[in-house]
Design a protein that fits this description.
The chain is α/β, with parallel strands linked by helices and about 260 residues long. It has seven helices and nine strands, in the order ββαβαβαβαβαββαβα. The protein is globular, with a radius of gyration of 18 Å.
Length: about 260
């Protein structure tokens, strides 16, 4: 989708729709809720994933042409309605097509966000070295990002991210369900996104957790992006909405930094 409403990206692209829950952060998955609302039964291990149309696959090529003279490459979040690294054989073909599409769109920065980083190394194309110590050239326009909603998920997932050859290895702490300590992973992380949960039944994010994460990032020199406060946290502050507008975020948390990319 062009001109995404997600604060940290410009576009979203989904090579398919559908996924399966893997951790507490999935409990109130907005993507699952939206898919059910439009009548697409694509969630769960037994459900088929929904392929996207040929015209849909052409959109990033258009964005790439439009970005030819852009000072800053548009960011493409892939995938908001799926997980690129879900381990299913029926996804191998669209995944292969995705790698080729990314290579054909060097004017776009692709943000591959996953809760399954253990699958990255064996799902990337052989021509992209998963480990920075391997031979080969990893595309400069691919940012590898993991979601970790709490310390347990951070400790489980970040070890698979530490040696990735990507120029940007990022961490999305959203929905933030508990405090996290970046200490042992600080040298690997080049960007941190923080956000509270939104939607019906949203669980609260303590503002102190976000502030502590902000302070860690400042201490370690990691760019920090405060996306939203979350619905429950907004209610606790006497406000409505999910707190994604800057005026809804406490002034000291109004930080929206991006990775510092090498030339």
């Amino acid at each position: 989708m062009q001109n995404s409403k997600i604060a940290w990206t410009d576009h979203t692209f989904n090579p398919w729709w559908g996924c399966v829950r893997v951790s507490p952060g999935c409990q109130h998955c907005y993507a699952e809720t939206f898919a059910k609302r439009v009548g697409w039964h694509v969630w769960g291990a037994q459900e088929r994933r929904r392929p996207m149309s040929e015209s849909y696959w052409q959109q990033p090529l258009k964005w790439n042409r439009e970005a030819a003279d852009a000072q800053t490459p548009p960011r493409v979040f892939c995938a908001s309605m799926a997980d690129v690294f879900e381990d299913r054989g029926d996804l191998d073909a669209p995944r292969k097509r995705l790698w080729a599409l990314i290579e054909r769109t060097p004017n776009l920065d692709w943000l591959l966000l996953t809760k399954r980083p253990q699958n990255i190394s064996h799902m990337l194309p052989a021509r992209w070295p998963a480990d920075r110590r391997d031979f080969g050239i990893f595309p400069d326009n691919v940012w590898m990002m993991a979601t970790a909603e709490d310390q347990e998920r951070l400790s489980n997932r970040m070890p698979y991210m530490q040696d990735l050859a990507a120029q940007v290895v990022g961490l999305s702490v959203e929905p933030m369900l508990g405090p996290v300590d970046l200490l042992i992973f600080q040298d690997s992380i080049k960007w941190v996104i923080c956000g509270g949960e939104s939607g019906p039944g949203a669980r609260p994010m303590a503002v102190e957790w976000a502030r502590d994460l902000r302070d860690q990032c400042a201490s370690y020199g990691i760019p920090f992006f405060m996306k939203q406060m979350g619905s429950a946290t907004m209610r606790a502050m006497g406000k409505t909405g999910k707190g994604e507008d800057l005026e809804d975020i406490p002034e000291d948390l109004r930080i929206r930094e991006y990775p510092r990319l090498e030339d």
